[in-house]
Amino acid sequence: MFTFFVRRLSVMVPTLFVISALIFVIIQLPPGDYLTTLVGELEAQGENVDQEKLDFLRQQYGLDRPVLEQYALWLKGMLQGDFGYSFEHNQPVVDVVGDQVLLSVVIAFATILFTWVLSFPIGVYSATHQYSTGDHVLTFIGFLGLATPNFLLALILMYLANVYFGTSIGGLMDPRYLDQAWTWGKAVSILEHLWVPVIVIGTSGTATLIRRLRANLLDELQKPYVNTARAKGLSEMRLLLKYPMRVALNPFIADIGNLLPALLSSAAIVAVVLSLPTTGPLLLKALQSQDMYLAGFLLMCLSVLTVIGMFLSDIALAALDPRIRLTGGRQR
Amino acid sequence: MTVRRPEGPPGRPTRRGPAAGLPGLLIGAALAIAICPGETRAGGTLPKSYISPFHFGHSEQSGALPKVEKRLPRVPLVVQPGPDQTVGRHGGTLHLLVGRERDTRLMVVYGYARLVRYNRDFRLVPDILESFEVEEGRVFTFRLRPGHRWSDGHPFTAEDFRYSWEDVALNPELSPGGPSKDLLVEGKPPVFEVLDAATVRYSWHKPNPHFLPALAAAAPRFIYRPAHYLKRFHAAHADPAELQKAAANLRLHSWTALHGLKDNPYRFDNPDLPTLQPWRNRTHGPAQRFIYVRNPYYHRVDPEGRQLPYIDRVILRVSSPSLIAAKSMGGESDLQARGLEFNQYTFLKMGEKRRPYDVRLWKTARGAHLALYPNLNVADPAWRKLFRNTRFRRALSLGINRHEINQVLYYGLGTEGNNSVLPQSPLYSESQRFRWARYDLKLANRLLDRLGLTKRDSRGLRLLPDGRPMEIIVESSGEHTEQTDVLELVRDSWVKLGIKLYSKPGQREVLRKRVISGQTMMSIWSGLAAGIATADVSPAELAPTNPYQFHWPRWGEWYSSRGKTGEPPALPAARKLLALYRKWETAQHEADRISVWREMLEIHAEEVLTFGLVAAIPQPVVVSQALRNIPKEAIYSWEPGAYFGIYNFDMFWLARRKKG
Amino acid sequence: MSERSEGAARLRHYVSDAPFDPLETEQLSAGQERLFTSSGWRLMWLKLKRHRLAVWSGYILLALYGSILISEFLAPYSLGHRHTDFIYAPPQGIHIFHEGKLQAPFTYGLRYRLNMENLRREYERDDFRRYPVRFLCRGDSYDFWGLFESDVHLICPNKDGTLFLLGTDRLGRDLFSRIIYGARISLTVGLFGIIFSMVLGIIFGGLAGYYGGIVDSTVQRIIEVIRSFPELPLWMALSAALPITWSPILIYFGITLILGLIDWTGLARAVRSKFLALREEDFTAAAELMGARPSRIIARHLVPNFTSHLIASATLSIPSMILGETALSFLGLGLRPPVTSWGVLLSEAQSINAVALYPWLMVPGLAVVIVVLTFNFLGDGLRDAADPYH
Questions:
Q1: CA geometry: angle at C66 spanning C61 and C70, to 5°?
Q2: With contacts defined as CB-CB under 8 Å, which chain C residues touch B349?
Q3: Phi first, then psi: what are they for C294, rounded to 5°?
Q4: Contact between residue A122 and residue A134 where contact means Cβ atoms under 8 Å apart
Q5: Do B594 and B428 touch, CB atoms closer than 8 A?
Q6: Cβ separation of B510 and A48 shorter than 8 Å?
Q7: Considering only CB atoms, which chain A residues are within 8 Å of C276?
Q8: Which chain A residues are within 8 Å of B529, Cβ to Cβ?
Q9: Rounded to whole angstroms, how far apart are CA atoms C186 and A186?
Q10: A36 in contact with B at a CB cutoff of 8 Å?
Q11: Disulfide check for A93: which of A83, B155, C74, C226 has CB 3.0–4.6 Å away?
């Protein structure tokens, strides 16, 4: 177990390095840099821009240095804890991001929880009542969530929530609670706003999990030992919970790792539509305005989150399934 | 509230009530401005007494703030309400929505406190300055208001101008490129003198017509800075080692970066930076909400003596740009125009039933909302020859059905015509607006036939002299579907001329590069920025003066690089326009400037150098029902106008006390 | 005839009288014979037929893909046909009853009025004007795949009337026709991406699975890096890198390549695990012993064994490609007007305006949902059927 742990950990580090290089390349791909996009935007609004100030700023920010040098500086800075400067906000990157990462994690967590809570009973029911009407209906609903484009659903739900429940449009809470201390009203307002993104993001993951759980459980239920247990007089429920469930649970846990990147990605789009103060919209704006260091930092954060998530799910899986430990890797 | 008789400057009547003297006052002021063009003085009788916005129990009573008479300059600016405005009351909080955190600069734009500013007739009048004199268009003497203070109480004096000029603009580390272009005439800076603590003078060797408009601009040239605050970030006035340490603490690599960070009067993101604007920022970024509280030392008062601004606080909320319409409809903004587009009008009107606001329609002020720019520097020689042919351009312009565009996209509420000035401008001429701009397919086809483009291919497209079919690719920045829609409409009418249009959305940056390098044939972009220009506004847009003009980028580059790169203008019309522009720059009298403008506009009308489509697009403005003094119908323009600036944003007031 | 009757006296046995043929085998009925000698594909098809939802999904998809070939024929209007007088018109229905009497299918007239107060275009049904709909009629002319020109449509509006089955958009273009044309791009973007992703997946997964060892670890690391990368910024950056000078067709291919580039990892992992298992099978060992080269072993013996799995995976990946294209169009990357795809149509409907005032603009979303659902059901069925011996 320990060697497995160490081995997985040692693999993570070079992965992160490669990711950082990829991220930097990707940020630099679009033509121009932060200042050129700034100029363009202002001029599109009919506002004038001081060309000399821009040249001055370009030199100040080091945007006129070669790409490789910029990457090396960035990497060195990151290892020392200096994550760079955000041009757009005129602040160090860590100050800008602040508690938005926390919020992203909270939403991701809530969504994963929602997904599990929803898909687990549905998956079990589907497997045990295969091909029944209930099975078909539930799978259909699960698929529906998967099939609908997220951003459209988010927009529709937000509008309906405003029309029928009076929820204010966008944001995480009603504007009057923004700077206030925590009150019951504030918490309720947050919940009122939270259900739309959680449902929209969660439903797409639900279908996958339902299907996976159903397939694995079906596989297990057809194995001979189930017949034996049944023949020996074990009740259906106890039978279900004692053996097949544990085996079927494995890919369920493994799916945290698979789910996380897709979750964060669709969460970003939904957050943009709903104007939630999470990393998604921040990242999008940073990428569009080529706010290099901010975008790089956020991407690294997301990747690290994902890598850690996958690592944790691997560990959990190894703890649950001795076969993994012994053969040293995921077989599925 | 205790009141004290103010000491007015000698010779100024202080006993007459302001209301009684109003008509005479205006006539007197108008006469003064008309008779003495070289000297302008802020008109208006001073009120008998001043009313402070700070009430019982507030810091004024407890002694933290001096009394209002001490806070105002000795001669404050008395602002008269406009024709559709009234005197108001203090109090209340205004909520606004913005799309980016960067938009905190809107408070400088809306606040519109400038050394000189445009009034509602777009004439330049002193604002922060008590008066100014211009001699021969090249010597500017500014008089400050004695007793005028910064928002932190420190006096506002000529030292602030000196610091800005000598320690910032001339400092090689802070301004490596030297002072900005509108402070240079033929590359030479002015002679700056401090005549006394309240008077400064800038003298050039030749007239500088850009100076005053730059001071009055929506995004102004700041020639003054709070020296007392910034000196501690300047290497010449503070200990360099300390500065280096402070810079390193904020992860900046030099004191110049630190100074630049703290000194951002336009961006308005440093709450500690003293300001002269009506409200000052109190929130450190990054934030979703920025709170602006009133500046206790603001220099304007209303005719009854109330120190402006009326509104106590302005709260700016940062929201996703695509949601601003939805949030406005939900009543989350008290005054919103930014981020709202005309096609959202119906949706906003729907919300009027549920929330206490109404939607007004102002008009935008660009010469054309969208215009087509044929690239006269295109690389393809056949097209270049055609684009440089005036008759060809006229034919293309005649082939555009502007009426249909107006009907389909703007319900017919726009003003069709060329990319030229609008009726509100004193330089407007109806003939110039509609010349070669009325939809006439027969005439257009005849012109094309007479140019010899009579051969057609199997699809009915005309052929170029070298046999290729006439296919024009119009590139756009791809940011608005409006542009693609317009191009689709133009395509349908040009096909009747035998010319096929392909629309290609791109990216702003890439578009610009392609235009300059000659790869782009034609582009679509917004039209003349100075749509309601007066003769004092620079006509630089009408001549090839900078490389960002999409119809003659190389000629513009030649001018802006002073002949080093680019090409000299090849068309005689363009050469004439450039000569006229130079004439405007050196003109000393207003009559000369007017005649230059008129000539340039006439050349544009005759030569059809750009194809304007529809102008004066309605702009929805959401106004809360509690808010007063917002004009019902007005022009929504950036320059001149500063959006709400010229309508005296500081005089907007809330009739009902709002919570929060 | 027993030969040792005395010795077998204590053993009761029975010997058949029937003629004995040592080479004779058990007789099978025709059906059974077909079943037992059928190929893997046939078995898969038989199992799939039992999953009725999958079968119906398959039919629907076939119809949709078939419609791509005759889009011009099916759509009542051509792609660029605008009606300046019918902007944002709501959907019209086809009626067959008028005042209780059965009639040929027709649409009612539309009366248009501009409400000057809120600038809303208001349409009213004009019950006095009925316009019978025409079938197999002549309408807008079109160029059929560059072969010939025609103007025959399946259904067209009456000469004086309008047929806006799903309403019109902001330029007065019929939405139903645009959805039919949009299917061309939206349905095929998944296909090309899948092919690309399959090729990459088989190559990498196969190499990893067959050779194992260091090749395996490297490929696994690459896969992990790509998987842990958030998709959205990858899309954004790659789309931004597409040169703007490319024609819409090339950009379209570029988009599919990008989508495929990110998607191949799942397939590669499946291929790898399958290869790892199959490598241990006896037939592989036999082939190796007989001297077959690795390429022959892979191509001839291993790949056919999991093609069914591959197809099932591919079918399940196409929907994510289609959704990916809509997401990219929503973000303003990828395909943009004047190209017409469902993603572009949706991005034009992506505003609070559309949701509140013109909800019919969101119908392309329904089309996306239907296609994604049918692909998922079909893929599910294929996957269940892919292992017929299970």
A1: 145
A2: 117-120
A3: -55, -40
A4: no
A5: no
A6: no
A7: 331
A8: 46
A9: 43
A10: yes
A11: A83
Alpha-helix residue ranges (DSSP H) falling in B352-466: 381-387, 390-398, 402-410, 430-434, 441-450
Model confidence over B301-352: pLDDT tens digits?
999 989 989 999 999 998 878 888 888 988 889 999 998 989 889 999 988 8
How many residues are recorded in chain B?
660
Q: Cβ–Cβ of B481/C352 closer than 8 Å?
A: no
Tell me the pLDDT tens digit for each residue of C150-204.
888 888 888 888 889 999 998 999 999 999 999 988 888 778 888 888 888 888 8
Two tokens at B608? 């059809």
Ordered DSSP codes for B291-305: EEEE-TT--EE-TTS
Subunit contact C330:A151, Cβ cutoff 8 A: yes
**Helix (H) / strand (E) containing C132:** strand C120-132
**Token output for C178:** 């645009």
Q: Are strands B627-628 and B635-636 parallel, antiparallel or unpaired?
A: unpaired
Q: Tell me if C84 and B322 make a contact (CB, 8 A cut-off).
A: no
**Residues ≥6 apart with Cβ < 8 Å to A263:** A108, A111, A112, A201, A205
In whole angstroms, give the CA distance from residue A131 to residue A126. Answer: 8
The interface pTM score, or ipTM, of the predicted complex is 0.75
Which alpha helices (H) appear in B426-571, and where do they start and end? 430-434, 441-450, 481-494, 508-517, 553-560
Phi then psi for B615, rounded to 5 degrees? -120, 180
Cβ contact B17:B49 at 8 Å = no
Q: Would you give the DSSP letter of residue A162? A: I
List pLDDT tens digits, range B19-65.
444 444 444 444 444 433 333 444 456 777 888 877 544 555 455 78
Best of A265, A274, A284, A285 to substitute, by most chain C Cβ atoms within 10 angstroms, is A265
Cα C8–Cα C11–Cα C15 angle in degrees, nearest 5: 80
Q: Kindly determine whether residue B101 and residue A89, on different chains, have CB atoms separated by under 8 Å.
A: yes
Q: Summarize pLDDT for A35-91 with one digit per residue, the tens.
A: 776 776 666 555 555 666 677 667 666 677 777 888 887 888 777 777 777 777 777
Cα of C121 to nearest chain B Cα, Å: 9
Residue type, A281: P
Query: CB-based contact (8 Å) between B350 and chain A?
Result: no
Would an 8 Å CB–CB cutoff place B261 in contact with chain A? yes
| Chains adjacent to B (≥3 CB pairs closer than 8 angstroms) | A, C
**A156 touching C (Cβ < 8 Å):** yes
Among C187, C188, C159, C156, CA closest to C174: C156
State how far Cα B636 lies from the chain centre: 10
Q: Which two tokens stand for residue A160?
A: 């309906």
**Residue of B609, B561, B658, B314 lying closest to B437 (CA atoms):** B609
- Exposure string for C218-243, b = 16+ CB within 10 A, e = fewer: ebbebbbbbbbbbbbbbbbbbbbebe
C-alpha A215: how far from chain center: 25
Instruction: Enumerate the residues of chain C whose CB falls inside 8 A of the CB of residue B326.
Output: 352
CA distance A322 to chain C (A): 18
For residue A126, the distance in angstroms to the closest alpha carbon of chain B comes to: 40
Measured between CB atoms, which of C80, C84, C352 is closest to B325?
A: C352
Would the CB atoms of A40 and B509 count as touching at under 8 Å? Answer: yes
Question: In A29-169, where does DSSP find H-type helix?
Answer: 34-44, 51-61, 67-79, 93-97, 100-128, 133-147, 150-160
Beta pairing class for B627-628 and B653-654: antiparallel
Q: How far is A268 from A282, CA to CA, in rounded Å? A: 9
Give CA–CA dist C136/B502, Å, rounded.
32
A182 contact partners, CB below 8 Å, separation of at least 6: none
Q: Both tokens of residue C299?
A: 């191509």
Question: How far is residue B216's CA from residue B635's CA, in Å, rounded to a whole number?
Answer: 17
pTM, two decimal places: 0.81
3 state SS for B591-616? HHHHHHHHHHHHHHHHHCCCEECEEC
Give the gap in angstroms from C-alpha B445 to the nearest C-alpha of chain C. Answer: 24
